[in-house]
Amino acid sequence: MSSMAAQCPISEHESVLARIIRDYFCSPDRQCQVLAGIAVLEQSGHNDRLYYLKSGSMAAYYQETDSSHPVLVFQVEAGMFFGVHSFFAGTFKASTTVIAQTDCELAWIDISTKAVNEDTYGSLSAQFMPVMVSELSKRQQRASLKAVANAQSQQKLFRAEQMTTLGQLAAGIAHELNNAVGVIDSKAQRLQDTLSSWLATYQPDAQPFFDVGLSQGQGVSSSEARSRGRTFEKQHGLSSNKARLLARALPQDADINVWLADLDNALHFWEQGRELHDLQIAAQHAVSIVRSVKQLGGADHERNEHVDINDTLQKSLSLLQGAIRGVTVTQTFGDLPLLVGSSTEFVQIWVNLIKNATEALVDTPSPNIDIYTFTSKGWLIVTIANNGPVIEESVRRKIFQPNFTTRKGGLSFGLGLGLSIVQRLVNEYNGSIAVKSDADITTFRVRLPLGE
């Protein structure tokens, strides 16, 4: 690293971030150049600095154990910060290894840096609160987009009937994403604890507004916010922007006068809470996606697990929670012994049968799916029934044939595997699958031998 100076222009109407950059990251004594390939931070190493990347690109990696492969957690681009947690949480211990991907220009503050204009802007932590929330939001947004892209990739593979290949790819993707998403999820929770503790100590009057944003996010629809905003603008003489923001923030049963007493401060801390709320929701969603992908994409399909069939059904329903929204699903699970096999294969079977039932219910006024599990005379039996249209006899005779598909009579098997593959998997466990259908109910019945 070598020292360098930089110009830091000041705009007339500068933002909070622009002021922070000007006040803290323009000192020539705290700037340097970093060559590509140089590690600025080492995971678990000492760090008492908050870095600001002026130009270039860096990457942060997390390694679970000494023998595991480093996982790319996030990219650091120009205008972003890193070292946020170790600096403000006071651990002074880097949680990731950060390496320059290109030649970079860096600026930093350290633990000896004093707050600038503390009487006006508050302590160092208070001034940097928007930076902390914004920085983690940027990283989480990127991780969420990556998780969604991977989920979409899985759907394409399903349609191509490449279940074996899908299993291998999904396992690899989930392995790469799991640590990254887990770190973001835990850091979001830790950031919430840190900010809540700080507010309780230093700005207790602001904490209720922060808590509203954190617990509720934006509690009203956009149309409702516009309508309320116009009312607030007329009644209280507010600018349209502030009125609209207050309309988004103010709970229906809240006293508006409490907010109006110091509106700028109230809205500021509500926005910080809302940003963290959105960050946590996105993190939880990403974790759910990764878990679903991991369940579908086992590293192999060796049939040597002791499998809880009820548990595989629950995991299948979790995976399909978006598809079954609006459908009443009744689960009546018996006390079942464990089967030796592959949990991944059983999840594949149930996902396809439940998805098939869901698609058959598109035009049904009160859609229902009933799932039963029980044992009888040496067999474990699973039935998945729906109240959709009847499947005609001519269709029932063909639905287990390879490449057979139809949308007539309510049958719509859309995952791309085909009932023939479901039947093949069941047969490989020395089981059987059958379908019955009439005007009231369609039932798929799977029988699996209990073994010795």
TrEMBL record:
EC number: 2.7.13.3
Name by which UniProt lists this protein: histidine kinase
Chain ranges of the Histidine kinase domain: 293-452
Domain Cyclic nucleotide-binding, chain residue ranges per copy: 36-110
SUPFAM superfamilies: ATPase domain of HSP90 chaperone/DNA topoisomerase II/histidine kinase (SSF55874), cAMP-binding domain-like (SSF51206)
Alphabetically ordered keywords of this record: Kinase, Transferase
The UniProt record lists the keyword Transferase: yes
Keyword Ion transport appears in the UniProt entry: no
Molecular-function GO terms, alphabetical: protein histidine kinase activity
UniProt catalytic activity: ATP + protein L-histidine = ADP + protein N-phospho-L-histidine
Protein species of origin: Enterovibrio norvegicus
PROSITE patterns: CNMP_BINDING_3, HIS_KIN
Gene3D superfamilies membership: 1.10.287.130, Histidine kinase-like ATPase, C-terminal domain (3.30.565.10), Jelly Rolls (2.60.120.10)
Transmembrane segments: none
